[in-house]
């Protein structure tokens, strides 16, 4: 089912598109004058960058769902945790430039009458520490969660529901002011990173390029995993978990490794997302966001990686356009997309692109798998 | 002050010696001197005239009309004129030359006290009880004589006890002998509520030692009692929350538990039920306002039909194609839920819709110091009724038999001539319809908005998964356990943290028992 080459044809096209984007988008933005018809306006650069971070999140979801059969309805939690980690660093970067001009504490802590920085904010002044936390916090949460869940053989729908409960619990937790994470308002009013203001054209272009780079690296990592022998076992777990276990593989360990990697990827995506949109708040934990990420993957094509990224970009482009032009229609369109894709496009857009024969073969095989389960 | 005392003495003496003749009282009220008016008010209160209470309250609003030598009249708020002496409507034009009784703050106070005294003697036991309660709170030593008189005349046990406690409260503020005060502390402690606690805590530092120690132990007893009461109240609220969860989840227990279909649009079925209630009330208001009190009785079957029909449509159009693929069902139904939300938002607008509560559901029930609102009580009863009705349908009807047969072994059921696809549609319709009925109940306690369902969907899944899939009893136990646990956690952890703890506990519980509290056993489990 999966090609054994690290980078197949679709992969080359995907990476080429990414490289082209890295060159063209900042180039057309920075080098062309504003009145040139090919000029990309500055507001568009972070928007496109945001799509790329969504694409990275979609890759993370596809890695566990498409190749290991774990439908996570809580990946938004890892995304948001990564975002919060970098958001905390950006808050510390504000320094005394806040409204209260307190050199020690961010504004919202002054507002909460805090006297000193809470322990869990220590170290976030230091960028490498924050960057480490972007990986460690989602990774640790995923490890603990996965350790228990996979060991107790919580599978399928049950796992999906408890991942949803996980992100819902975090949503509630981050809404609390006692968390000292900005509560309802979240973290915002960021000024700069490494001393460079976030609003400058150069910074926006760099963040865009960084997002594209992260997406490319994430893709290569995923390809590396799924084309390796390890990846073959993952697919086996997806298709016949019990049989794989009876063959002697420690299914839970395979699942745990890929689950933690996926969570870290989602964390990186969140960390790149936050400086580009300028805010992180508890709303990012809402279960609906996580489910939306799943639909990006479904639209693009589950288990194709490239499709996941493509789906994320396309759906979000449609969202930006529809919520602007026809706000009433967006939820109908998104809802309809869910239904149409699950009913008629089980392999997503990538399935359409591939030859119709292989789609037929795939769906008949799926049916064959589905039948005995009745 | 002295005058007031005189007045109250007069009040106290009234039982012994009938005060002045009515006309003398009216003349006094017609005086220009406040002293005379005040005495007149006291006289009127003790006159025994049936209209005295009404006339006194009329005096406060300037509706009591008097003139020297003429019969006094008062106007009811409706505008009819009543003769105070006879309590009968006065002849037209009888109010010519009459003036309202002059009122200042002193008179107002006198009138208020007089009315209080009158209600202590009211023929209505509940009015007397209320009056005794207000005396307890006011603990004005000057009401003591009137209270004594009322005590002497009182027959009703409850009112008598309340009056004794009121007297005890007053005793504690006076310089009564120590033994009396200790006894009074005991009486006040009998109340065992916040008011008694406030009174005992407020005892002056100069109180005798015996009184103080009696008060201290009484305070402790009340606090223990209140803490227990608070726990009981938490449990009662928990049962109430649990029954809300049960209502929201029991439909899901059918679609998810019995059919194995993950219906993310379940919350929207609840929402549709709530909007059906709104529509039913709206139509009744326009076409049959007389039926408004029964609007909920009409809304329940209507909501069942609306949500049930939508459920059948969803099953026929979408879910039918996705059997055996639970994760895809989940995504498709989530899409449907988004569309339903947006459809309702487009039709009814994004803001909350007003659903009125019938009179018979408003108000509250007072049970040994526990306060339960009637609508909460009704929801508990409704939830149980729905639950047992469903059990009956599943256990005793042909449909139920067929549903269980299809659940246990689809192929065998099909071979026995059961039309499995029809049963699927009906089961899904049944589950959705029950969700719709839940919506009727939730419209009474929650905001009817397009997002109504979103607030319940995760909780409902938690209940079903916790209770065990495919088992309605598990749903009942799960809902009540989660509800009570949530409310018991709240006082310690706060509402939000309590909920988080509960979610984490359920996540951990699922690790321990992946198939819930009451797991199904048998070979069809893995299907």
From TrEMBL, chain A:
Origin: domain of life: Bacteria
GO CC terms of this entry: plasma membrane
Transmembrane feature ranges: 12-34, 54-87, 126-150, 156-175, 207-226, 256-274, 294-317, 329-346
GO molecular function: branched-chain amino acid transmembrane transporter activity
Claim: Magnesium is one of the keywords in the record: no
Pfam family, one: BPD_transp_2
Keyword terms of this UniProt record: Cell membrane, Membrane, Transmembrane, Transmembrane helix
Subcellular location: Cell membrane
Protein's membrane topology: Multi-pass membrane protein
Matches recorded under PANTHER family: HIGH-AFFINITY BRANCHED-CHAIN AMINO ACID TRANSPORT SYSTEM PERMEASE, SLR1201 PROTEIN
Protein name (database record): Branched-chain amino acid ABC transporter permease
Automatic annotation (TrEMBL), chain B:
CDD domains in alphabetical order: TM_PBP1_LivH_like (cd06582)
The UniProt record lists the keyword Transport: yes
One of the record's GO cellular component terms: plasma membrane
Any one GO BP annotation for this protein: amino acid transport
Membrane topology according to the record: Multi-pass membrane protein
Keywords, alphabetical: Amino-acid transport, Cell membrane, Membrane, Signal, Transmembrane, Transmembrane helix, Transport
One family name in Pfam for this protein: BPD_transp_2
Single GO MF descriptor: transmembrane transporter activity
Domain of life of the native organism: Bacteria
Subcellular compartments: Cell membrane
Membrane-spanning intervals of the chain: 235-262, 294-318, 330-348, 368-394, 461-485, 491-510
Signal peptide feature range: 1-19
InterPro entries: ABC_transp_permease, ABC_UrtB_bac, BCAA_transport_permease
NCBIfam families: urea_trans_UrtB
Family label: Belongs to the binding-protein-dependent transport system permease family. LivHM subfamily.
Protein name: Branched-chain amino acid ABC transporter permease
Organism of provenance: Methylopila turkensis
């Amino acid at each position: 089912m999966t090609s054994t080459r690290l980078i197949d044809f679709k992969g080359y096209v995907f990476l080429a598109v990414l490289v082209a984007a890295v060159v063209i988008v900042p180039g057309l933005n920075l080098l062309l004058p504003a009145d040139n018809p090919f000029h990309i306006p500055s507001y568009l650069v972070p928007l496109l960058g945001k799509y790329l971070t969504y694409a990275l999140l979609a890759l993370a979801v596809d890695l566990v769902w498409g190749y290991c059969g774990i439908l996570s309805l809580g990946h938004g939690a890892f995304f948001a945790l990564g975002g919060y980690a970098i958001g905390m660093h950006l808050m510390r970067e504000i320094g005394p430039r806040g409204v209260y001009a307190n050199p020690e504490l961010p504004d919202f802590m002054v507002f909460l009458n805090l006297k000193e920085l809470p322990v869990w904010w220590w170290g976030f002044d230091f960028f490498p520490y924050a960057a480490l936390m972007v990986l460690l916090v989602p990774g640790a949460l995923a490890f603990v969660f996965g350790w228990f869940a996979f060991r107790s053989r919580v599978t399928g729908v049950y796992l999906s529901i408890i991942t949803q409960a996980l992100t819902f619990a975090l949503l509630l937790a981050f809404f609390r002011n006692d968390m000292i994470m900005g509560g309802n308002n979240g973290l915002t009013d960021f000024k700069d990173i490494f001393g460079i203001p976030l609003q400058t054209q150069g910074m926006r272009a760099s963040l865009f390029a960084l997002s594209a780079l992260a997406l490319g690296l994430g893709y290569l990592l995923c390809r590396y995993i799924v084309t390796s022998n390890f990846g073959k076992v993952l697919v086996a777990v997806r298709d016949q978990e019990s049989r794989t276990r009876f063959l002697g593989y420690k299914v839970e360990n395979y699942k745990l490794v890929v689950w933690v990697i996926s969570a870290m990827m989602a964390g990186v995506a969140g960390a790149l997302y936050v400086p580009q949109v300028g805010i992180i708040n508890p709303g990012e934990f809402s279960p609906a966001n996580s489910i939306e990420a799943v639909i990006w993957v479904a639209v693009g094509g589950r288990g194709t990686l490239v499709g996941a990224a493509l789906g994320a970009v396309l759906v979000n482009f449609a969202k930006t356009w529809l919520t602007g032009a026809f706000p009433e229609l967006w939820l109908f369109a998104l809802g309809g997309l869910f239904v149409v894709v699950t009913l008629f496009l089980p392999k997503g857009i990538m399935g359409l692109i591939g030859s119709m024969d292989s789609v037929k073969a795939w769906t008949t095989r799926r049916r064959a798998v589905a039948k005995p389960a009745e | 002050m002295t005058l007031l005392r005189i007045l109250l003495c007069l009040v106290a003496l009234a039982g012994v010696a009938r005060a002045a003749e009515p006309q003398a009282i009216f003349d006094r009220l017609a005086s220009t001197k406040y002293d005379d008016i005040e005495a007149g008010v006291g006289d009127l209160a003790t006159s025994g005239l049936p209209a005295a209470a009404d006339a006194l309250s009329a005096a406060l609003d300037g509706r009591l009309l008097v003139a020297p030598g003429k019969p006094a009249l008062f106007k009811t708020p409706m505008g009819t004129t009543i003769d105070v002496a006879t309590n009968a409507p006065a002849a037209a034009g009888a109010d010519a030359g009459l003036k309202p009784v002059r009122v200042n703050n002193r008179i107002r106070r006198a009138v208020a006290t007089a009315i209080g005294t009158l209600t202590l003697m009211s023929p209505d036991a509940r009015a007397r009880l209320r009056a005794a309660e207000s005396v307890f709170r006011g603990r004005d030593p000057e009401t003591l004589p009137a209270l004594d008189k009322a005590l002497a005349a009182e027959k009703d046990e409850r009112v008598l006890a309340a009056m004794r406690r009121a007297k005890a409260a007053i005793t504690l503020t006076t310089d009564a002998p120590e033994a009396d005060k200790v006894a009074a502390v005991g009486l006040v402690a009998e109340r065992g509520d916040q008011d008694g606690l406030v009174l005992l805590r407020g005892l002056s530092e100069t109180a005798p030692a015996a009184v103080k120690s009696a008060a201290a132990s009484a305070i402790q007893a009340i606090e223990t009692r209140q803490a227990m009461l608070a726990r009981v109240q938490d449990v009662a609220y928990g049962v109430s929350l649990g029954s809300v969860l049960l209502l929201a989840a029991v439909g899901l227990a059918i679609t998810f538990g019995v059919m194995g279909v993950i219906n993310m649009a379940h919350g929207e079925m609840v929402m549709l039920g709530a909007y059906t209630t709104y529509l039913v009330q709206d139509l009744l208001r326009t076409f049959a306002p007389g039926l408004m009190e029964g609007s909920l009785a009409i809304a329940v079957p209507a909501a069942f039909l609306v949500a049930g029909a939508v459920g059948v449509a969803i099953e026929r159009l979408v879910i039918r194609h996705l059997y055996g693929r639970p994760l895809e069902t989940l995504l498709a139904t989530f899409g449907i839920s988004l569309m339903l939300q947006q459809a309702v938002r487009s039709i009814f607008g994004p803001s909350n819709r007003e659903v009125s509560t019938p009179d018979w559901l408003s108000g509250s029930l007072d049970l040994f110091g526990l306060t339960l609102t009637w609508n909460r009580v009704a929801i508990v009863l409704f939830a149980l009724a729905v639950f047992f009705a469903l059990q009956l349908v599943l256990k005793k009807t042909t449909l139920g038999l067929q549903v269980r047969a299809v659940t246990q072994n689809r192929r065998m059921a099909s071979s026995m001539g059961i039309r499995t696809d029809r049963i699927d549609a009906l089961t899904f319709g049944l589950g959705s319809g029950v969700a719709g009925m839940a919506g009727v109940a939730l419209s009474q306690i929650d905001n009817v908005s397009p997002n109504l369902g979103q607030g319940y969907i995760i909780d409902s899944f938690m209940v079903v998964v916790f209770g065990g899939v495919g088992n309605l009893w598990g749903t009942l136990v799960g809902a009540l356990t989660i509800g009570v646990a949530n409310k018991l956690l709240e006082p310690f952890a706060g509402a939000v943290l309590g909920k988080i703890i509960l979610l984490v506990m359920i996540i951990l519980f699922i690790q321990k028992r992946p198939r819930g509290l009451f797991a199904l056993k048998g070979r069809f489990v893995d299907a």
